[in-house]
Design a protein that fits this description.
With about 190 residues, this protein is an alpha+beta fold. It has a domain at about 55-60 and about 75-188: Pnp Oxidase, Chain A, CATH 2.30.110. The protein contains four helices and eight strands; from the N terminus they run αβααββββαβββ. It has helices at about 1-20, 40-50, 60-65, 110-115, and strands spanning about 35, 75-80, 85-90, 95-100, 100-105, 120-125, 135-145, 170-180. Strands 1, 2, 3, 4, 5, 6, 7 and 8 form an eight-stranded antiparallel sheet that branches. β2 (about 75-80) and β3 (about 85-90) form a beta hairpin. The chain is globular and about 50 Å long. It starts with a helix and ends in a 6-residue tail after the last strand.
């Protein structure tokens, strides 16, 4: 009887492990704290994101006579999935939203590597000036890798943090898949 019970327990375990979880649309909400934007709300989010993005200025541009820094730019967080399945998160100052596209300059690191392949997906988190948080879902379209050297140093973004180790910069263009809004996020 003990053997039969043991076999049944093992079979139940095998069956429960082999059941694949149902996949759902990533942009549907199971919570009242966020919603997918459409119509006028989407247009308003685009306007806010464009106003809060940076100029993506290079070190040489910032040093040039007559350069004027953009007012109202804000930092953002960009997320991706690491090879081990954990979440990669980077705080960035050089990002831009324009005409349904997002752009980011990332210093070489795991998050940059995760997003450096066309088709890779990620998320940009931005706190809007209106107190709303925007969750911008991204898909990598193209990547330009800038290799660090004394000759290329001025082409890197103005806040580049990898000079000591001569790390590359990844200038990534993203397709925006969806924008969600939330009034409750932990970041920023």
């Amino acid at each position: 009887m003990k053997k039969l019970l043991m076999v049944l327990m093992v079979l139940c375990l095998i069956v429960s492990v082999s059941v694949v979880a149902e996949e759902i649309d990533a942009y549907t909400t199971a919570s009242v704290t966020k919603s997918v934007l459409a119509g006028d709300a989407f247009a308003e989010a685009e306007t806010i994101l464009a106003a809060q993005s940076s100029l993506l200025s290079t070190a040489d541009e910032v040093k040039a006579e007559g350069y004027v820094a953009k007012q109202g730019s804000t930092i953002a967080q960009i997320m991706s999935i690491n090879p081990d399945g954990s979440v990669g998160l980077s705080t960035i100052s050089e990002w831009k939203y324009e005409n349904g596209k997002a752009y980011a300059k990332l210093t070489q690191g795991q998050n940059a590597l995760n997003l450096s392949t066309p088709g890779a997906t990620g998320t940009l988190l931005v706190k809007g000036t209106n107190g709303t948080y925007y969750i911008v879902h991204l898909k990598t379209e193209s990547v330009v890798v800038l290799q660090y050297s004394e000759e290329t140093a001025g082409q890197f973004d103005q806040y580049y943090s990898g000079a000591a180790n001569k790390l590359n910069e990844y200038d990534i263009t993203f397709e925006v898949l969806a924008i969600e809004s939330s009034n409750a996020l932990m970041f920023q």
